[in-house]
């Protein structure tokens, strides 16, 4: 171990704002040696990111090629925007866009506000034991897999022995409906699953914001004669507004991500028309049919929109005077 | 009860309180009812499942389904595979996350900003399903258990949270160790890691749950049904688009409790999560909240 340059004992690593002396390259190799252990620790993780995150980004080039596995990434022929043209003019694009956006709208309307409402109700709960029990129970579904959620849906709604299906049948009568397979019920079930799985978990971040409200504010308001509703309106609600904005930014950045596992598990031969979204389409085209280039182009299109959405909503939030994400 | 003057104890306010209790209790019950029903159903007879509309306690308590599934190769193999992949995968994930987060927490480290930006960029944009699949394929990992662990080895969110946690640690301790002649590796191993037990517990659970629940990776990378994980079995048996006939054929027996089987499989795939849930609950809120702290 040659510690000839600067022994670490004398010069603690944190103190690195030393004036630059000597040529740059020498300083670099010097730093590399000096922080060798840190770089060594960094290396496996960095390798992971390069291999499994950045190499696939290079792989995106096949969206502009006719990828033939035999020829590889660089050997395959460039075809420009052919696959994108195919996507935009093809029969599937309108349907995919409609399905993806409609699910996004349904999510924003029904799923996004749910944790806010539940968190606000929990916040008003004065019995602490009850509050904690409710929290413990509603968090559970978050930790269950989508396969379990899909199975529960099937066990509850299937036509032959689904409990809820039979129950509704008993109430309404008429012919039995196959909720799980039919196209009409696809979207309601997806929303229901999301509500069941994510509502409780979603409250955590809002409850944290609510817990941070200074109780003196409420006392002062009470002294001024504010009732419960006015306290809620003027203190509680403004307190979680920044959190709502941040969550809205995060959500809108992922509007095009329809949850591959969830959708895929709920897709049947009868509901393909309403169930197909970009994410699942990429799987069908790419993995099932082996059209790697076309599927990559579809995925890239979706990814680019995602980036635009994230930066767009972040910009919008800042314009509205809120703290953005970056 | 009357001594304290409550300025907001109007009639309306009390009615709201009662309604609120009812509403939230109802919500909690509705949330867990499906799980309780499936648990009850897994111990019920075939005829009870098909004849009784809803129950939380079977008339006749039977364990046929469990005897059956634990006697089949397919299921036991899937269970062992899932346990193994989850255990090994979690260790890999923790190792990579912790070792990478530590240097990233050192603000003086040249090149740190670049790497951090590389990490953050992956939160916004990714190569997507197909290019990642092709990388896994080109690495020869298709149909290998490694495909279930390596492509998800670091969750960038968790990495950033762990990094923030390391940054919060008192610098003085590390400083003292350095002055005593410890190199950075030893500082990390002997000072930082022992101080990080809570966060290690949190993220080992998070990662383990992630692998246990992962359905997309086996779907994408595993063709060989002998290497299926539990989630694949669950899906094959009970999902909306299930191909249960195919699997039941593989389970290769003549008589089996067909409906009860579905209930029992769901229970077995869920139970470990519910078992760890109390530990998860102790830690997860912390994890979520540290994550919300801005860089």
Topology, element by element:
The complex is a heterodimer of chains A (326) and B (295).
Chain A: H1 24-34, H2 36-59, E1 65-66, H3 72-75, E2 77-78, H4 82-89, H5 92-111, H6 113-124, H7 128-139, H8 146-157, H9 163-172, H10 186-211, H11 215-223, H12 228-253, H13 260-266, H14 272-275, H15 278-288, H16 292-319
Antiparallel strand pairs in A: 1-2
Helix pairs in contact in A: 4-16, 5-10, 6-10, 7-10, 8-13, 10-12, 12-16, 15-16
Chain B: H1 11-42, H2 46-51, H3 64-69, H4 73-104, H5 112-124, H6 129-138, H7 156-168, H8 171-179, H9 184-195, H10 197-213, H11 216-221, H12 230-238, H13 244-250, H14 258-291
Largest sheet of chain A: 2 strands, antiparallel
Counted by DSSP, the helix tally of chain B is: 14
Name the strands of the widest sheet of chain A in spatial order. Answer: 1-2
Euclidean distance between termini CA atoms of chain A: 42 Å
Q: Helical region count of chain A?
A: 16
Task: Sum up the structure in keywords.
heterodimer, A: MetI-like fold, 16 helices, disordered N terminus, B: 295 residues, mainly alpha, 70% helix, globular, disordered C terminus
Describe the structure.
Chain A is an all-alpha fold and 326 residues long. Helix content of chain A is 69%, strand content 1%. Chain A is built from 16 helices and two strands. Chain A has a two-stranded antiparallel ribbon. In chain A, helix 4 (82-89) crosses helix 16 and helix 7 (128-139) crosses helix 10 (186-211). Chain A starts with 23 loop residues before the first helix and ends in a 7-residue tail after the last helix. Residues 1-19 of chain A have low confidence and may be disordered. Chain B is mainly alpha-helical and 295 residues long. Chain B contains 14 helices and no strands. The radius of gyration of chain B is 25 Å and the shape is globular.
């Amino acid at each position: 171990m040659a510690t000839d340059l600067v022994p670490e004992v004398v010069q603690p690593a944190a103190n690195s704002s030393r004036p630059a002396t000597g040529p740059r390259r020498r300083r670099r190799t010097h730093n590399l040696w000096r922080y060798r252990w840190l770089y060594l620790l960094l290396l496996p993780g960095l390798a992971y990111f390069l291999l499994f995150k950045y190499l696939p980004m290079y792989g995106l080039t096949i969206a502009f090629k006719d990828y033939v596995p035999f020829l590889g990434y660089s050997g395959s022929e460039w075809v420009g925007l052919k696959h994108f043209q195919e996507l935009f003019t093809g029969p599937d694009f309108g349907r995919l866009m409609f399905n993806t956006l409609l699910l996004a709208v349904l999510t924003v309307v029904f799923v996004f506000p749910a944790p806010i409402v539940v968190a606000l109700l929990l916040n008003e709960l004065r019995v602490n034991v009850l509050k904690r029990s409710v929290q413990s129970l509603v968090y559970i579904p978050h930790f269950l897999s989508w396969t379990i959620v899909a199975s529960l849906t099937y066990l509850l709604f299937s036509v032959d022995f689904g409990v809820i299906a039979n129950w509704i049948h008993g109430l309404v009568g008429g012919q039995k409906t196959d909720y799980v397979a039919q196209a009409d019920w696809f979207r309601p079930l997806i929303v229901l699953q999301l509500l069941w799985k994510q509502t409780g978990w979603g409250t955590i971040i809002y409850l944290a914001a609510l817990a941070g409200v200074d109780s003196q504010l409420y006392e002062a308001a009470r002294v001024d004669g504010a009732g419960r509703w006015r306290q809620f309106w003027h203190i509680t609600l403004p307190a979680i507004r920044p959190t709502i904005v941040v969550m809205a930014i995060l959500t809108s950045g992922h509007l095009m991500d329809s949850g591959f596992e969830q959708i895929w598990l709920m897709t049947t031969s009868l509901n393909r028309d309403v169930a197909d979204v970009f994410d699942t389409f990429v799987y069908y085209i790419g993995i099932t049919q082996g059209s790697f280039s076309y599927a990559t182009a579809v995925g890239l299109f979706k990814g680019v929109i995602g980036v635009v959405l994230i930066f767009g909503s972040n910009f919008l939030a800042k314009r509205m005077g809120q703290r953005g994400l970056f | 009860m009357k001594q304290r003057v409550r300025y907001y104890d109007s009639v309306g306010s009390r009615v709201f309180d009662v309604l609120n209790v009812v509403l939230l209790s109802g919500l909690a019950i509705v949330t867990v009812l499906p799980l309780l029903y499936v648990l009850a159903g897994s111990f019920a007879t075939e005829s009870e499942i098909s004849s009784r509309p809803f129950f939380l306690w079977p008339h006749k308590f039977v364990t046929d389904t469990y005897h059956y599934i634990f006697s089949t190769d397919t299921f036991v193999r899937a269970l062992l595979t899932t346990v193994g992949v989850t255990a090994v995968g979690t260790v890999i994930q923790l190792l990579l996350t912790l070792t990478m987060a530590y240097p990233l927490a050192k603000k003086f480290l040249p090149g740190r900003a670049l790497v951090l930006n590389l990490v953050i960029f992956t939160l916004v944009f990714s190569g997507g399903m197909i290019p990642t699949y092709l990388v896994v394929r080109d690495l020869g990992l298709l149909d290998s258990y490694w495909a279930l662990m390596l492509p998800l080895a670091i969750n960038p969110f968790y990495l950033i949270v762990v990094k923030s946690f390391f940054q919060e640690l008192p610098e003085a301790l590390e400083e003292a160790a350095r002055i005593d002649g410890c190199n950075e590796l030893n500082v990390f191993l002997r000072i930082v890691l022992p101080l990080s037990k809570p966060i290690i517990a949190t993220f080992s659970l998070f990662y383990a749950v992630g692998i246990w629940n992962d359905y997309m990776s086996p779907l994408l990378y595993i063709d060989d049904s002998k290497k299926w994980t539990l989630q694949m079995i669950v899906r094959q048996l009970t999902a909306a688009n299930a191909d249960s006939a195919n699997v039941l054929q593989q389970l290769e027996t003549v008589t089996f409790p067909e409906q009860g089987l579905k209930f029992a499989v769901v229970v077995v795939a869920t139970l470990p999560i519910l078992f760890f849930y109390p530990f998860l609950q102790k830690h997860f809120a912390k994890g979520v909240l540290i994550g919300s702290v801005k860089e």
